[in-house]
Each structure stands twice: as structure tokens, then as C-alpha cells.
Amino acid sequence: MTVRICLVRHGETAWNAERRLQGHSDVPLNAVGEAQASATASQLAGQPFDAIYTSDLCRARQTARACAEVLGLVEIAEPALRERHFGKFQGLTYDEARERHPAAYRRFEARDPHYDFDGGESLTQFYARISAAITGVADRHPGGQLLVVAHGGVLDCINRMIRGLDLQPQRDFLIPNAALNWVRREASGWTIEAWAQQAHLDAARDELPNA
Question: Is the residue at 188 inside a domain?
Fold first, then answer.
């Protein structure tokens, strides 16, 4: 049976504005992010969602909770939907990471699928986690419509999974804070219906360092 999912990246945080790598760091929304979460909730009002799943990190849960209050649901925390663990890069800006760890940054920038930040998570590991997580969520709700609130890296993995893209090429699609991304799974496989819908937002940051 068809499962339809609206994927939302969390609203903006202070670390997003500073171009700082968050990963598993539990950073809350800033005032802009709170406004984005409210705008996204209003945009989704009236949609017949069966459940809301969210990463258990604060920035995602705050965004999901704003939507849950409007939709009359309670968000379900799913730790497997967390952002990638950036190991020794967590808490650093992209510029700081480049300056302090130049060789490691080159591997990160080249999207080396096996580089794990010396104790973090490789792209290969991250992709396997996210593919299993989104498939598991879909399996729980045959014929349903779901809202999933997560992170930029999570949405990157899901987009690549659906389109059959390799992990290493640079991204060719946007992942703005609090935008709407609609996908569906049928017996024949996954399809993207719409991506990066942000007409309800005044402005939103992409998660790439130069965006």
C-alpha cells in the first residue's frame, strides 16, 4: 500500500547561522527557527497525518512539536533519525574544521564514503542507518500519511536513496530549514513528489557551507 511522507528539516539554529557543524550536539532553535517551525505547522494544518516521527535531538523535536500541536498529534521520537555524527568536527565551523584538520577536511569535502571523523560516523554507516530508519517508519503505516522531522544530512540520504544516487557526488538539490519535501513509497518503490517547497517561509538556509 502507498505510504506518503512529508519530510521536514528542522528550523534554523544559532549554529546553522554560524555555519557550525552540529551533528549529535543538542542545539535548540533560535528565534528564526521557531518562526519557521510555526510557519511550517500552519502550512500543514488540515493535512490528514497519521503520525509524526522526529529525531530525538532538540532542534528537530521543537519543530515537530509545533506541527504536532496544530495537527492534534503527539510526536514520536526516533533516535535513528538523528543527524550524522561528525566526531571531532562537531561544534566547529566549516572554516575552523578546515584550518584545524586540513587533511581530514579534504576527505570530508570530497565526501569520502569511509571517512568517520576518527570516531564519528562514515557516510556509508550514516546512509545505512537512515535508509533502515525511513523504511522502518514507512513499514509501520501501510496506506498512511506521515510527517518526519529530521536533519539536512538525513534528507540528503533519503533523496539519494530514492533517486539511486551514489553518496560521493556533490549534492544537486536544496535542503532548506523547515521546507516541505514530499515522497511516497508504493509496491514499485519510492518516488519524490515535490522537494524544497518553501513558499511559506520568508527565507531559509541550506545546509551546505557555501549556501
Answer: yes
